[in-house]
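User: Show me a protein chain along with its predicted structure.
Assistant: Here is one chain, sequence first, then structure tokens.
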Amino acid sequence: MAELKIEKKEYGFRLVINNESYFIKDKGNGWFTMTIENEREAIDFVDEKYENLGTRDLNDLLCKLVTNPSETLEMLIGEKINVEKISIEFD
């Protein structure tokens, strides 16, 4: 069981789970960029289409993470994580 922490920013949002973090922001034209972080420093970038996750835009992706976190995280990071708790911080 894990806790998913979502830090909502004006320009995107950060996911923190099991001491790993990912920052997601809109890239435009139906794409988003997910930054894989180590201690909040970028170590890799992944570009993905919203439609591949069954979403329309950044807000829709955020809603899907809140309503179906385990399945959505598995599609995003390729790892099955059983999310027990979600906390959201707005900045």
